[in-house]
């Protein structure tokens, strides 16, 4: 694995959390490949093999739908909050060609409208990442949350 | 942008948090350029364009004053606490010559004198960083806190 | 200090937290050199020069014992929890030959069996790390916790 591949992968991780922490859902969508998918699931369900997930965007159209929901359908109907993500790469395995599988720890802090900060969720990202001329993209992201009972309801992707 | 420039920038970020977490205010001051400035402000005020800040050291003399306040004037008059900083670079943009603008997520944990740990604040650093023969220095740091209501009063810079 | 040395050191830090967060105690043990040792101590005791530690595995046999305790002796007798570690290197000093001394900030989050997440402890790792053909290994790790009163009892190493 080259350093350049790792740099592209880390830059993708950075773009992802920067997009969410600035509530730029178009930039979030742009971190996914055209055949990309996103699942956000509690570890309890993941380990039991139960498919019940908090979010399951299993094709690009559903990723696009999520952007529409957050920015248009739900806008103004939920109590807003500010997220702050941290991510640390734990493993990276070449899977042949331009494909890599990575695992990263994450924590998401949140600040409510009154200005109080707490831990929203923590867990691990399990990713299939594809490198390309336009930078790395997520072919598949599973956000597996240790947390099963978040201190507030979750609107934005993790 | 060269890898060497990024390494200098990341080393500066590391020196900064190492200085604060070991309460070495002289080392904190040394992370700033001779024309450096520091502002610590709540995001609520930052986004509203309100200049009200928790700390506003708009010239090097005020940075020096802050060191004096923390180490001499206030010393022994406040309930002390131990910080632990984490920082993750989100963006880095060359601004010409030796100047770079970076954005980094930060979290600061604190432990009180009874030994209990909590989250003090989280947010983002928006920095103007200048490279030089003595390593990178902060020309300007804005610590923009998501947190508006910290669980205790803040004595040390963030 | 070469970039390759730093990469080996960072890879060791990653293997360490990946081992603990997946409860793989054999992999945890494998991060230590054959003459490795591990101490987990509150900063209050560390700074006072008091040797009282939460864990003191001062030889490889005691490291092996800890693995046995966690995986066999204590198994099923404690309320389990899931950890999630974050680590950030603060300093790295060559000590001659293949030996390096590093300091890193750490935070450990935990999720209880009901699915609630909180901060378990934060602090700093003070390490003696030895490079070798099989990757970097811990010759000595001191996990110095800022936290003196964790929100639950600690079973797994930090």
TrEMBL record, chains A, B, C:
Family to which the UniProt record says this protein belongs: Belongs to the bacterial ring-hydroxylating dioxygenase beta subunit family.
Annotated keywords: Aromatic hydrocarbons catabolism, Dioxygenase, Oxidoreductase
Any one GO MF annotation of this record: dioxygenase activity
Source organism superkingdom: Bacteria
Protein name (Swiss-Prot/TrEMBL): Aromatic-ring-hydroxylating dioxygenase subunit beta
Lineage of the organism: Bacteria, Pseudomonadati, Pseudomonadota, Gammaproteobacteria, Immundisolibacterales
């Amino acid at each position: 694995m080259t350093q350049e591949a790792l740099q592209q992968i880390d830059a993708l991780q950075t773009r992802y959390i920067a997009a969410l922490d600035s509530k730029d859902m178009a930039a979030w969508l742009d971190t996914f490949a055209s055949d990309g998918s996103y699942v956000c699931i509690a570890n309890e369900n993941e380990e039991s093999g139960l498919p019940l997930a908090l979010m399951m965007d299993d094709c690009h159209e559903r990723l696009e739908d999520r952007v529409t929901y957050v920015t248009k359908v739900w806008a103004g109907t939920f109590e807003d909050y500010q997220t702050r993500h941290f991510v640390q790469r734990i493993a990276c395995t070449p899977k042949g060609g331009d494909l890599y599988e990575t695992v990263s720890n994450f924590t998401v802090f949140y600040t409510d409208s009154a200005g109080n900060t707490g831990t929203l969720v923590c867990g691990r990202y399990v990713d299939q990442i594809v490198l390309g001329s336009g930078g790395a993209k997520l072919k598949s992201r599973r956000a597996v949350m240790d947390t099963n009972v978040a201190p507030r309801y979750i609107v934005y992707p993790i």
